[in-house]
């Protein structure tokens, strides 16, 4: 099946923004923190939301590809396709808990063993989404919007019980620790909406006739997804005006989902109708997409290099220099090591191996 480079471009763009936001947040002096607010008011919500949304795209496309292959191939069965999906989610959850444990030990606060970093959020979302992947699209969009509204109502109530040793305090910790991170209700909603768009992607991507494929892209993405994106973005800006610049609000969620859907529709159109040459121009974001999980884990030590030492001017010299270095490193890694240092790719390979071993044991019994 044809690889859709638009997904790589958006995922890479989101992880790039995420790292950039962290560097500015970590390194800038307190007097110049105004820079982060003015620079990232419109982009920070898109970075977080976009990464989870695209993870939903990819999960749906990957599973449906394996399931379709299972219908015509003896190399993989539907049970194996399911096992690969679930094992990958569990492996990712294990890595996220190890990641959280290291942070908890470093902070001398074991409550951080359960914290909604992006890896934990995506892994839990993968597990929760499994029963929903074959449900109607209207059910998933309804569930996604419903969870966003529920989160808007529930989070202020539970926030008042933060740190308390009662049922509401425990529930707050499970659902919202830490409140500024990728908390599960809102981001699972985004993930579910992502699987819906992934279904559209998959259905179009298996069309071999180029004329029919382009007509489907026009019909689905330029007449439906693009319009939905515009509606979502407009609602996010209008509803409680100015709230959309604060990442965890309902306005920001709708604004961000809409922005990513608009961006996706435009890039897909430019790619498929050959208005741009993505093979030549998308490599920068491709590297950030291909090594997204690796970058997410590996960039944390950068926290200590210039912690609160740079002002609004010299921070750009450090950030640009670092990104040039990172890009060169990723390019060399991709050429010399390829998938060997891609956590995302290795999880896929390992889950496939484990699923095969499970099937082999079953066949012997």
In total, the number of domains comes to: 1
Overall pLDDT level: 87
Return Rg in Å.
21 Å
Distance between termini? 35 Å
Largest sheet: none
Name the helix and strand elements from N-terminus to C-terminus, one letter apiece.
Answer: HHHHHHHHHHHHHHH
Coarse shape: globular
What is the helix fraction of residues, given as a range? over 70%
Number of strands: 0
Written overview of the protein:
The protein has 365 residues and is mostly helical. The chain contains 15 helices and no strands. The protein has one domain. Helix content is 75%, strand content 0%. α4 packs across α15. The longest helix has 30 residues. The radius of gyration is 21 Å and the shape is globular.
Write the layout of secondary structure elements.
Layout: H1 5-27, H2 34-40, H3 44-72, H4 78-107, H5 118-129, H6 137-159, H7 167-176, H8 184-205, H9 210-238, H10 250-272, H11 278-281, H12 283-290, H13 292-298, H14 314-336, H15 343-364
Helix pairs in contact: 1-3, 1-10, 1-12, 3-4, 3-5, 3-8, 3-10, 4-5, 4-15, 5-8, 6-8, 8-9, 9-10
Give a nutshell description of this structure.
The protein has 365 residues and is mostly helical. It is built from 15 helices and no strands.
